[in-house]
Amino acid sequence: MRPVRFNIHPKEAKLTDSIMVAEAPEMYSGEGFMTAKFDKVIGLARKNSIWPLPFATSCCGIEFMATMGSHYDLARFGSERVGFSPRQCDLLMVMGTIAKKMGPVLRQVYLQMAEPRWVIAVGACASSGGIFDTYSVLQGIDQVIPVDVYVPGCPPRPEAIIDGVMRIQDLVHNESLRRRGSEKYKELMNSYGIE
Amino acid sequence: MNCRIIKLSNYQIMGLTNEIIQQKLTEKFGEAVFTEWHQQFGLLTFTAPKDLNLKVLQFLHDDESLGFQFLTDICAVHYPERVGEEIAVVYHLHNLEKNIRLRFKVFTDAEKTEVFTATSLYSSANWMERETYDFFGVNFIGHPNLKRILNVDEMDYFPLRKQYPLEDQTRIDKDDEMFGR
Fold first, then answer.
1. Could you report the predicted ipTM of this complex, rounded to two decimals?
2. What are the boundaries of each domain within chain B?
3. Best interface-test mutation with A: which of B167, B170, B178, B179 has the largest number of A CBs within 10 A?
């Protein structure tokens, strides 16, 4: 039998090596209590339990399937439960080419989501129309809905999609609780024609 | 079943070849009606005047020896250099029993593109003609529901005609020189 060349000194698996513990927010604690800033705690809880809605239309959807598989595993980041109902989801992941005929459908799905909601445009087609500069393809979903993070690539590798989701996590973590009611946000929504 | 035994002389046993199809068509409709007979990779192609398209399709469908009862596709081609008959509507027919395909073209004018609908004969022609209407503006007379099928309903032009550019004209960030427009 061929002698083993690799992994000849296997390491003992230690639990602390493979689990990342979330950083606690700064808090003031005492006997039996601790206090922290509300939005930090909420941000921490929200960022580690985002429920995505995969709006997968074409090739980027396949890369998303790979991302959700065990090798790249998006579930590590808390996005274990993907839902297909916009009413129950936080993050709309638009993956794939959106045709002009699909635009109103996408907008309708976005409108059905409850605040707070985030949108990630995965891939070149969702970000800007990609290589399809034609009469039938919507040149970027930001023509119909506001987008938070764009992931470039055609298609982006699963690592890139994970990076995009991590940026969304940063946005979620640092978002102020008052943002959704603020003037600036209302203006943004009005610019898209959303009340 | 007995027609498939000797694969080499398939056509000899069953007796349907491109020559026989051509012969039967010219017998029925006359020599002068059909033009532009040619074969591309063994696929017989011919042209007929657009008023006869239903009669020809019906004959090809009903005749026992011909039996082209499967409509594979209806599409259109825009030939801008053929003035007066710019838009060709192309029917691809298939005889499933004998595995023979046929291409049948009718030409029509670019301004007044009207062709009789084949929906009474083939139900699949319904959506295929809607697609042809959507992209080339061919008006199929007698079609039950002629409206756009793949493009946005509000589109006011027929995109696959050659005078319209491929690119989306609403983009302002693409430099025309760099992107070859």
1. 0.77
2. 2-111
3. B167
